Amino acid sequence: MKKIVSALVASLTAFALLFGISACGGKEPQREIGEDYVIVYASGDMRASGAAGSVAAAVKESLGAELPVRSDSSAAAEKEILVGAVQGREYSDYAARMPKKGGWYVGVFGDDVYIQTDSGSYDDAVRAFASYFLGVPLEDGANVSSSGDYAVDGMTLCGSPAGFYDIVYPFADVAARSAAEDLSAWILENVGYELPVRDENTEGSACELFVGAEYGGTLAADEYAAVFSENSVKIAAESGIVEDAVASFITRFFAAGEGDIVLSASAEAQVCKCWEYLATGLEKVQTLENAQVAEGVSYEKFRMEDGSGNAVTAFMLVAEAGADWRVRAATHPGYTASDRLLSTVQNTAQSLEDEGETVLFACNGGFFRANRGNIPESVLIRDGENLSATGSYGEEGHGFFGVTKSGEIVIGTYEELGRIWQDLQQAVGSRGLLLQDGKLYDICYGASDALGESRHPRTAVGLRENGDLVFVVADGRQAGYSVGLNLCDLAKLMRSLGAADALNLDGGGSSSFVLRENGALTLKNSPSDLDGSGNRIARAVGDCLVLVAA
After folding, report:
1. Fold of the CATH domain 10-149
2. For 172-205, how does the pLDDT look when each residue is reduced to its tens digit (9 = 90+)?
3. Torsion on CA atoms 288, 294, 295, 297, rounded to nearest 10
4. Which of the two ends of the chain, N or C, has the fewest CB atoms closer than 10 A to its terminal CB?
5. What pTM does this model have?
6. Domain residue extents for the chain
7. How far is CA 312 from the centre of its chain?
8. For the segment 80-111, what is each residue's pLDDT rounded down to a tens digit?
9. Using an 8 Å Cβ cutoff, are 457 and 476 in contact?
10. How far is Cα 279 from Cα 272, in angstroms, rounded to an integer?
11. What is the Cα–Cα distance from 335 to 346, expressed in whole angstroms?
């Protein structure tokens, strides 16, 4: 049995109060089940009638109270235990939306308790009711169910449970209606809430998940907006891209969730013209440069801002799967396992050019320990040669980026690396993963050191499910231009850019973004290191990742 958003889940206590304070409706929580309750069953439903009798027996056995049993054709009492698909009650429409696909559901709405089933049998539901709702204070919103078939445990949207929401679209907007229906179908399949779809001129719940062009701001033809406020979620897009907007919204906010989904109406998540960046608490405000480096390889420089106006300038390269490129791990030409020479990313890339390669892009790679002879902290495999500090694959907790001898690109954990390192042709290591299978890895929640929690220059590489590679370098430590990212921001940014797996590479002064531009290799970012005259200079590093033309 799967328990969903129950009073037993301490982390969701706030959810238990939402029905009482929501603008969508509700009553103040008051209570325990006692003699002031009436048991009500759905008229004409013999199974519900029998279950109502079982509920009465359970109450009598547990509490000693004999509660009257009536059908829903009777007038509503102040406090009721409602069994089956009852009609004519304040919350019956909302209760009918709650998860129970092929199973059962027991939940509290205001003072009332609803017991429902899709399976025909109420036995398990009555037992759950007796176990969890008798002899204890009732918390508004508490519920249990058998909905083990759902990918998502529960959903709270901007102050109210998702079951209180209608999905709304602009009147006569056919595309928005289709997108709204797609969203409703996804929520039903993955969360279990069956939300009605209606146009804006039709009466319904005060809680709305709006899909369509009404926004209140200015959007370009190819932009989406995500607007969160109390009891309201808006997916704003013009008709021509509204279906893409909904699909993207599901990917960014719903499908990426694990366990319960909670979308907040906080100041950090109000409006974003391109919500790929909303997940970080940063809003993309400007594209500063973009270019096609080669067929299937594109570059963008963009600026983001947080809610306090702090700027972050970042650089992104996307290498599409199937295009003519390959990735190499590269070092200073004289780098060996015993003589670990350092070089800037730009100089390392140029050395490959001198060998006849056409370098499209390069960035810094794995961490290295300058105070210990520049040894790599984890794996380093260059063109099949193992240069790792340990002779194998590094230390527990490290992640890696690798290219196998067959050409497969892998981003994975230390444990995965230990299994396949002998099959790697190229590899660099890291202190940890950012994403694994689209989910935020431990680094996002466990970044307890100062370098993880605070903002700094960052470098990351990500792999999309379709095989595209995404490289990101964010400048930092330069107020007014770019304050940098913390590790959780970096993880969320990589996920927002479509990465399923992503790795945090060496950062700080090592962060370098070198791009082929007009036939030459150019350092595009602004390093945080300074020379004796105060000029910004690129740091020499142990290794780097280089994208070359195939």
Report:
1. Chitobiase; domain 2 (3.30.379)
2. 899 999 999 999 999 888 888 889 999 999 999 8
3. -50
4. C
5. 0.54
6. 10-149, 160-273, 285-549
7. 21
8. 999 999 999 988 988 888 887 778 989 898 89
9. yes
10. 10
11. 16
